[in-house]
UniProtKB/TrEMBL annotation:
PANTHER family: NON-HOMOLOGOUS END JOINING PROTEIN KU. It comes from Sphingomonas aerophila. With LigD forms a non-homologous end joining (NHEJ) DNA repair enzyme, which repairs dsDNA breaks with reduced fidelity. Binds linear dsDNA with 5'- and 3'- overhangs but not closed circular dsDNA nor ssDNA. Recruits and stimulates the ligase activity of LigD. Signal peptide: none annotated. GO terms for biological process: DNA recombination; double-strand break repair via nonhomologous end joining. Residues 288-297 have a biased composition (Basic and acidic residues). This is Non-homologous end joining protein Ku.
Amino acid sequence: MPARAYWQGQIRLALVSIPVEIYSATKSGAQISFKQIHEPSGQPIHYEKIVNGIGPIDTAEIMKGYEVSKGEYVLLEQEEIDAVKLESKKTLELTQFVDASEIDVLYYEKPYFVVPADDLAEEAFIVLREALRRTKKVGLGQLAMRGREYVVSLKPCGRGMVLETLRYADEVHKAQGYFREIPDEKPDNDLLDLAEALIEKKSGPFEPQEFHDRYVDALRELIERKRETGGKKIIEDKGDEASSRGSNVVDLMAALKKSMESGAKAANDEKPAPAKKPAAKKAAAKPAPKDAAEKKPAARKRA
């Protein structure tokens, strides 16, 4: 567990208060970061804090200001901002419980692990966790972190709980504006059956470790090739991408059938080929020539 919690406070449910600590549940993945370089000298470019008519200034002289009118600012000290009294800075009060399915996926923003702050808080923590699990509900409340108050959800996760910050309603675009032009019609049943069969064929458990950032891998390869060639310009061939983007599926039924057939062919290719029948059995199945049949009795008389 990290040495320092992202937030410390208490969860309050009616008259019950549970001291907890919150830790970020995610981390930044592998990324390729670039710096701006002055090509003639090969040196990185730096940026300075500059005031119009004055020039570069010291960062200690910088304050936060809110523009109330054109060119007029109200200046605030950081201590003044930190001193703003808000109950949710130290307390997450659960004010409502809803089914998880009622919260649209668009509202979820970032997850955090929630753990009891000490041994004394464990009993109440476990009771709340199991009550949420048994009722299949998600707790809702508001919480202030790092200069902002969030709407948050709380739900069980293994032995602990997960808190997720949610976006406010005015931060989410209305889907109708984007989906309005999509026809409201039922698909052909045969097409739907084929699509469902294809989905079922490709269904399986979610294994996140199977996925990785291929763009980052490609950039690393490009950087290594660039270094090996001494800075020679390298341009990847994008012909295949352009051709695939320009293709158009005319017959959806044929495309779905072909997808199913290709999957079945791949499965059959993995099966061992059936063993061939011995040649001797084929020869035995042929009728004996008439002359040979007539000679056999004569041989038995000589014996």
